[in-house]
Amino acid sequence: MSPAPRHQQDPIAWHGLLALAFFGIVCIRLTIPHNLYFDEVHYVPAARMLMTLARPENAEHPLLGKELIALGMVLFGDNALGWRIMPALFGTLGLFASMRAMWFASGSRFASIATGIFIATAFPLFIQSRIAMLDVFMVSLTLVALWAVAAAVRENEAGRWRLALAGIAFGLAMAAKWNAVPLAMVPGVAFAVIRIKQAGWRFLTATRCAPVAGIALWEAALWLGVVPLVTYWLTYIPAMLYAHDPVAPLGFVSLTRQMLHLQNEVVKPHPYQSVWYQWIFDWRAIWYLYENVDGAQRGIIMIGNPLTMMAGLAALVWVGVYGLSEGRRDALALFVLYVVALGSWIASTKPVQFYYHYLLPSCFMLAALALALAEWWKNGRKLIPLLVLAGSMAVFVWFWPIISAAPLAGPQSFNHWMLIDSWR
Fold it and tell me: How confident is the model over 67-110, as pLDDT tens digits?
């Protein structure tokens, strides 16, 4: 008899340890600056208004992110810790979810752990986990949803509740920021395409085939289509209780039009605005903070880790080609998710865009890098993967003072990290 195939042991303990370490470094100087900075000036006042249920504020974005910021303020007070504790927790959740999603998608211990290291040391998730903005909630909840989808595909016996969880997480992600909408459509479309290919004319009711056996296509449409919309709607219940201009329970069509109008009317150029091709080549930085505050000169620059952001582009080409030529669904999924996440911004009519919009696409790119290096690791060529991992962590440590609001020597200290002039 042939021996049973050997399976790698689930590295969930390593995932948990990496997530806890990430939370620990996020909390260093989390309350510095003690005052509002960068886009916190929009979202914290909106959260304060939401706590009073007086009237709409920052109406161009959905409510969940502001509700979560408000929850932090209820628990820890209207102060820097209260504003930023929920982004820190959700950023940590997103990192953990990325590793779990990679594990269930690839079955590779190395790829899942490397995904966590690359995303944690890439700068964007770290920085967005330390500021009261909406993006980290959207990104983290999207990664939770993809974790649930990957787990449902890997372990079909638990597919029903995992697809239900994915639907709830996608609904919450959309309720944090609309950028999640294109990504929320991908699993449902993929499910339909695979099921039609597997089941033929019986695609609507067949259950004994991929991607999740035991789940008919009509049921998958319920979990991945209806549940997200209902979840999104439920997050607006507080807005239905406003003293002035409450949201009508069934007035979502007009509300959506109003939100689109508010988002597209911001046409005044911003000194830090950028476009998608500047994001992928790490050309244009955003200075979230650079001033003398809390007793020292401090700075926070939003940019990507130059090592992994460039190496990740080559990995994207690899996962696209390898996924198609070898039928590797994990590689192809990462390529599709990146294209959809970035493509939605390329096609967007929003006139003013920023580098932090690249946070979600960059997570898929960094996961692609981890998956590509996992192939080297599996084939016994371990030096290159180890060097890239060590290099990513070393670059993170080198940039640490200018991404964590550490005390700097003086007003010109930023020059030490300016590898290219467009970061200035």
Answer: 999 999 999 999 999 999 999 999 999 999 999 999 999 999 99
> Residue 56: its pLDDT value, please?
86
CB distance 319 to 366 below 8 Å: no
**First-to-final CA distance of the chain:** 66
Look at residue 296 and give its three-state secondary structure: strand
**Confidence (pTM):** 0.95
List of residues 6+ apart from 407 with CB closer than 8 A: 295, 296, 297, 298
Helix, strand counts (H, E) of the chain: 17, 2
The 10s digit of each residue's pLDDT in 21-43 is 999 999 999 999 999 999 999 99
Contact 204, 192 (CB under 8 A): no
- Kindly write down the DSSP assignment for every residue of 233-252, as one continuous string: HHTTTGGGG-SSSPPPTT-H
**Which of 175, 170, 212 lies closest to 195 in space, CA to CA?**
212
Q: Is 297 buried (19+), middle (13-18) or exposed (0-12) by CB count in 10 A? A: middle
Does position 5 have pLDDT exceeding 60, yes or no? no
**Under 8 Å between Cβ of 63 and 134:** no
* pLDDT over threshold 80, residue 242: yes
Q: Are 422 and 284 in contact (CB under 8 A)?
A: yes
The domain ranges of the chain are 119-133+271-424, 134-234
Q: Where are the alpha helices (DSSP H) in 155-179?
A: 159-176
Q: Which of 215, 229, 223 is nearest to 187 (CA)?
A: 223
- Token pair for residue 424? 């200035």
From 340, 61, 68, select the one nearest 189 (Cα to Cα).
340
